[in-house]
Amino acid sequence: MTAGPEGGSGSAVTGEGGDSGSAAETADEARLPRPQGSGAGAEAAADPGPRTGMFRSLAVRNYRLFAYGQVVSNTGTWMQRIAQDWLVLSLSGGSGVALGITTALQFLPMLLLGLWGGTLVDRMSKRRLLIATQAAMGLLALGLGALTVAGHVQVWHVYLFALGLGLVTVLDNPARQTFVEEMVGRRDLPNAVALNSASFQLGRVAGPAIAGLMIAAVGSGVVFLVNAVSFAGVIFGLARMRPAELHVTESVPRAKGQTREGLAYILGRRDLLLLLGMTALVQLFGANVQNQIALITKNEFQTGPASYGVAAAALAVGALTGALLAARREHPRLRVILAGAAVFGALQVVASLMPGYLGFVLVLFPMGVAFMTWTTSLNAHFQLSVDPTMRGRVMAIYMLFFLGTTPVGAPIVGVLADVFGPRTGLALGGAVSLVVVLAVAALLAQRMRLRLRLTPTRRPFVRVAPNPEPGRRSH
User: What are the transmembrane regions (predicted)?
Assistant: First the structure.
C-alpha cells in the first residue's frame, strides 16, 4: 500500500460509518482510536491552549533537562554499539553468528522478563527508577571498557556484559517510555515521543561516526569508557527535575494477578493485537539492519570501521529526519504507521541489491526515515490509547514485541548471512516485513471497515451557479 502526499492524489484510507450514507473520512482525517483518559486529565482542561511548533515540548523545564541529557547519553550508547559490534567481529573472525548471539543476549531478558518489568514500573517512582537503571548501565560500560583496555577481553565477556545490559533494560525501557507523559502531560505526548526519538537518532548520527574514528585511533575499549561517562548527563538531568511539576500517575498498589491483568487488557483490544503482531514479525526478521550493515561493509565491500561508521550514520540521519517530521504531527495515523513499515521493508530489499558501497549508503537514508516514521507513530498511539494505570504493563508488552523478538531473529539472520551471505539476510528480512505489513493492512481494513480508494483525494470547494432567471430573487 502506498500513500500519496498530503493533499495530493494517491491511495486514501477512508472510514465507513455503521449507518448508510455517513460521510467518509479521508486519509488526512482518519486516525487510530481516540485516546482514553489520563491521570493528568484535569491538566488538559485547565490549560488555556496548546503549545505549537516542532520543539514545543522543550518549553517544559523537566523535559528539557531530560532531553539534553539524553542527547549526550545516546551519543555514547551508539558509540558503544558500534564498538561492541566491531569488537565481536574482530574477536570472532567476522562471524555473523557471534554478532547475532550478542544481540540476542542483549534483548533476551526483555523477551523473558518484560511483562514482570512493566508490572514493577507501574508500582514505582519512575524518576527514581531511571536514576538507578542509568547508573547501572554506566557501570556495565565501565567494566567492559576496563577489560578491553587491559587486553583481557574475550567474546564470552562481551556476551556477559550484553546480557547484563539486557537485564537492566527490562526496567529501564518501560520506565523511560511511561515517564514521558509525566514530564510533559498528555497533550504534548506525541511531540515529546517524537523528540525523544530525534534525540536518540541525533546520538545515532554522531555516535557511529565518532566511534569509527576512535576505534581506528585508540581501540574499542576507550569508546566503552567514554560511554560510561556519558550516562552522567541523564542522571544529572533526572536529579535536577522539579518533582512538583511532574504529571505523576498514581502508583498501582502491589497485588496478585497484575501481570495477568495487563495481558487481559491487551487481549481485549483487537486493534492493538494486530499492530503488535505486525511489530513482532517486522522486528523478528527486519530489525537486525545494524548487524547486516556491519557484515556487508566488512565482508562484502571489504571496508574498515570508518566506512561502517559512515554507513550507520547514514541510516541514523534518515531516522533523525523521520523523527523530526513526526514531531510536527499532532496525532498518530493508521496510514502513516502502515506505509512507513511497508516502505522500510521494501528499502531493505533495495539495499541488498546495491552493487557498490556508495549506492548502499544512499539507500540507508530513506530506510531510516521510513523506520522512524512508523515506530514513532506506533509508540505514541500505544501510550495515548490505554488506561494510565495500565501504561507500564502495556508499554512493557509493546517493548516485548518491539525488542523481545530481536534475540530470536538475530541468530537466524546471522546464520543466513554466514551460509548465503549478508545480502540474502537483509533481503529476506525486508521481504518478510513487506508481506506482513500488507497482510495486517488488509486485516485492519476488514476489521475496522476501512477501504482503500485509489482515486484523487477531493477537497471541499464552493461553486456559485448563475441564477437561471435573472432579475428574480430565489427564496
Answer: 96-117, 129-150, 262-286, 306-327, 334-351, 357-375, 396-420, 426-445
Contact 345, 286 (CB under 8 A): yes
- Distance from C-alpha of 275 to C-alpha of 30, rounded to nearest angstrom: 16
Residue range 366-418, pLDDT digits in tens = 999 999 888 888 888 887 777 777 777 787 788 778 876 766 777 777 787 77
184's grid cell:
510533559
**Cα–Cα dist 248/322, whole Å:** 29
- The C-alpha atoms of residue 336 and residue 451 are separated, in whole angstroms, by 15
Contacts of 279 (CB under 8 A, 6+ apart): 378, 398, 401, 402
- For 189, other C-beta atoms within 10 Å of its C-beta total 21
The 8-class DSSP code of residue 245 comes to G
- Report the predicted TM-score, pTM, of the whole model to 2 decimal places: 0.65
CB 16 within 8 A of CB 450: yes
DSSP code per residue over 253-280: PP-TTHHHHHHHHHHT-HHHHHHHHHHH
Q: Which domains, ranges and CATH numbers included, belong to the chain?
A: 12-35+55-244+256-453 (1.20.1250.20)
| pLDDT tens-digit map of 373-387 | 888 888 888 877 777
| CA-based nearest residue to 121, from 238, 245, 249 | 249
